[in-house]
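Summary of Year 1 activities. Much of the first year was spent building the evaluation harness for sequence design. The harness presents a backbone, in tokenized form, and records the residue chosen at every position. We chose the following record to illustrate the format because it has been used consistently in internal testing since the harness was completed.
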């Protein structure tokens, strides 16, 4: 389960009916970032690892950093409305989503880094818990004093509950994978991300690919073995594909945000949270850099496809796709103008589907709404920002 995005769609969205059948039956796949090439963890091995949940279903990873606070990615929660907080919780001290393991805590409020919604590379959010967690070891955040330990070549571990390949099936078991840190210079090379990586981000992975975080692990921690125990150096943020050569995993760099973390946790009154009524940073309005219109009343019979073309400009930083409402079961497939590029999927049960692409390539993207089961009265939103 993932969070719903605001219903704002891109103006100029053109609709074309696509006749061919799409062989999309991946009903357990999630559409945010997950573990590729990993191995199972043991119960109690990563006690601070948490699952962000909506209606008791996982949608993103997180880390418990003290008794009252959880750290996750901003893109996991940017579209949460204050009215939805009551349906949210974090689950921790477990490894198997299908089991009765662990504990669950309600969420009081969510604080998104203020520069994130302005398109900056600040993909972090703090989650205030409704009741304190006192029965586990917390995960320590890296600080500037730990800089000597955060060097290229140092092995880090990322973990999550997600697919083991791009577009594959999810694993109900908590998986982990070890990946080396790489310099931003390497990550910004022409064969990698060609200058897109900011100083507030850190990369990890192999030039040859094969191991990575991939599509649900979003928000989870990137952890090294610090001199005094586990040390979180990154938050799972984004990447091109999953475990592809030269396409390293990109993480929000924890040391870039320590001052903001401390200020929020000690002065919540000075920071707008999602639960603070109309002042909701997770709900962009229909202005600024977001453009669009809402498309309603979409319908299709089983195995039919409704297609759309989306124009993405040169300077776009985010491409959001969201469907909700109505009856039946719609799935989403999105790919860029280069038809050989990787496709993005959202194939949840029902009509609440979501795809997020960071730094989308400019050009005409193709979106297909596939009727896994006949659907009607579905709303579609696309945001380019």
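For this record, the design step produced the sequence shown next.
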């Amino acid at each position: 389960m993932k969070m719903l995005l605001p219903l704002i769609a891109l103006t100029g969205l053109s609709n074309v009916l696509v006749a061919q059948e799409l062989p999309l039956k991946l009903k357990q796949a999630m559409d945010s970032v997950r573990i590729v090439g990993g191995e199972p963890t043991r119960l109690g091995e990563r006690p601070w690892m948490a699952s962000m949940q909506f209606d008791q279903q996982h949608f993103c990873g997180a880390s418990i950093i003290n008794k009252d606070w959880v750290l996750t990615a901003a893109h996991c929660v940017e579209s949460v409305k204050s009215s939805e907080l009551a349906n949210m919780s974090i689950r921790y001290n477990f490894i198997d989503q299908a089991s009765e393991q662990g504990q669950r805590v309600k969420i009081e409020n969510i604080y998104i880094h203020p520069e994130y919604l302005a398109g900056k590379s600040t993909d972090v959010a703090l989650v205030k818990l409704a009741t304190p967690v006192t029965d586990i070891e917390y995960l320590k955040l890296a600080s500037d004093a730990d800089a000597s330990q955060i060097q290229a070549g140092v092995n880090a571990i990322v973990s999550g509950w997600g697919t083991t390949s791009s577009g594959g099936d999810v694993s109900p078991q908590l998986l982990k994978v070890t990946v080396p840190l790489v310099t931003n210079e390497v990550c910004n090379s022409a064969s990698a991300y060609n200058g897109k990586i900011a100083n507030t981000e850190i990369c990890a992975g192999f030039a040859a690919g094969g191991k990575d975080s991939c599509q649900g692990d979003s928000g989870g921690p990137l952890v090294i073995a610090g001199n005094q125990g586990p040390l979180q150096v990154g938050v799972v943020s984004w990447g091109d594909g999953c475990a592809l050569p030269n396409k390293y995993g990109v993480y929000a760099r924890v040391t870039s945000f320590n001052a903001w973390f401390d200020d929020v946790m000690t002065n919540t009154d000075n920071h707008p949270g999602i639960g603070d009524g109309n002042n909701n940073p997770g709900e962009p309005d229909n202005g600024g850099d977001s453009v669009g219109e809402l498309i309603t009343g979409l319908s299709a019979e089983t195995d039919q496809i409704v297609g759309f073309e989306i124009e993405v400009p040169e300077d776009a930083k985010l491409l959001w796709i969201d469907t909700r409402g109505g009856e039946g079961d719609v799935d989403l497939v999105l790919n860029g103008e280069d038809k050989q590029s990787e496709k993005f999927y959202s194939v949840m049960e029902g009509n609440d589907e979501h795809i997020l692409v960071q730094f989308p390539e400019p050009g005409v993207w193709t979106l297909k709404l596939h009727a896994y089961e006949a659907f009607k009265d579905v709303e579609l939103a696309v945001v380019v920002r």
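The radius of gyration is 20 Å. Quantitative recovery figures across the full test set are reported in Table 2.
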